[in-house]
Description:
Helix content: 25-40%
Number of domains: 2
Radius of gyration: 23 Å
Structural class: alpha/beta
Low-confidence stretches: 276-286
CATH superfamily of the largest domain: Vaccinia Virus protein VP39
Mean pLDDT: 91
Amino acid sequence: MSLIQPHDPILLISEEGKRYLVFAEPDSAWYTNRGRLPYDDLIGRPYGRIAETHLGQKFLVLRPTTSDLIQHLKRTTQIVYPKDAARLVMELDLMSGKRIIEAGTGSGGLTMAFARAVLPEGRVYSYELREEHQRMARRNLDRLGLLPYVDLKLRDIAEGFDETDVDAVFLDAREAARFVPMAEAALTESGLFAALQPTVNQVSEVVRALEEGNFVEIRVEEVLIRPWKPVPERMRPADRMIAHTGFLIFARKLDASFRTFWLDKRARRRAMEFGKLKNMPPVSGR
């Protein structure tokens, strides 16, 4: 049975369903308008129990998931929603031993998800331009014990990345298209690229930059979540859903010597789709 340890994160859920992320600091307490809850009353007890404040208000005590942490960690920036973070972890093939560059640390929510995916043998190299954002991210990562797996760097990514031969690069920058060449230079052959952009015009610019570089398998996706009300007698979709939060762009780096082969294959495919296969160039390669 897993017991709550000092400094562990805890998710408290009220009887009305409100969620609160706290940390079990010894000799301290959580203060709310619902009463005072000493952390010493929680330390050493298992998760999945009910705790009461001194006013008799009850809270469910749970271990927070990665999704909970992303949504409830202290932040000074917009977050990458868990639905998009999960897709990124999957499509960038993150696991122990992988090395990934993240451009745009923000408050560290996605950095945390990346670090949890690549530990204990992997590494996250996270670049941020604003010191106050990096300071918040460092604090969040430290409280979760993830700093040993993350290198936080304070600099403009227009200068390029320090690392080479990394397995994946993720860009969360306003003008991500500008930094596609830097991502290509940092990636290993067949390395994976991803970017998050809020608008269609920005997506078009990134796709164009990828096509001008040595990238293949370019895809644009949007992740939507439509929850349902879990009431057996009257199951139906919930009134609200998590819809557009951004566009995800994925691609894979290709060895430059095979770029002509890929372009010819793509041209042939498009020609077949539009019934114009005549006078197509032959497929070439090394």
